[in-house]
Amino acid sequence: MSKAISHLEAELVKIRAGKANPAMLDGIVADYYGNPTPINQIANVSVLDARTVTVQPWEKNMLQAIERAIIAANIGINPQNDGNTIRLFLPPLTEERRKELVKRCNGEGEQAKVAIRNIRRDAIEGIKKLQKDGLSEDGAKDAEATAQATTDKYISLIDKHLGAKEKEIMAV
Asked: Is 30 in a helix, a strand, or coil?
């Protein structure tokens, strides 16, 4: 369940909230001599200011491939290539775009909740198998209650993460 939470945190970092973050390029891969390679492994990704991310490839001939990869990723930002570096200028978010981002965050949260519920279901099935093999009924009830309590704890943690991210996105 903690892996589901850490995955959610990683996905929420990629959703931009109006300020530049190098992690927003995580998951974008460029063609590096025929191999799809993450941008942060073939270039230096850094933040200049609150609205600008720079990508400086270690090899100049990779500029075009990185630029194409960013455009293809459809993150809502047009890269600007000056021959040495690629600059990504983040425009201010509109109200409509903020609401879209909140919906996307909620979708990621729902996926994490489904993963946690699946883990709970698997645990309860395992408990029922153990009960057939001789586990006492009281022991099975206690184990199921523990599984449910753990599930509730992690789902409330997901809700906290989503609430914080929504607050960050909606802040002007």
From this structure: strand
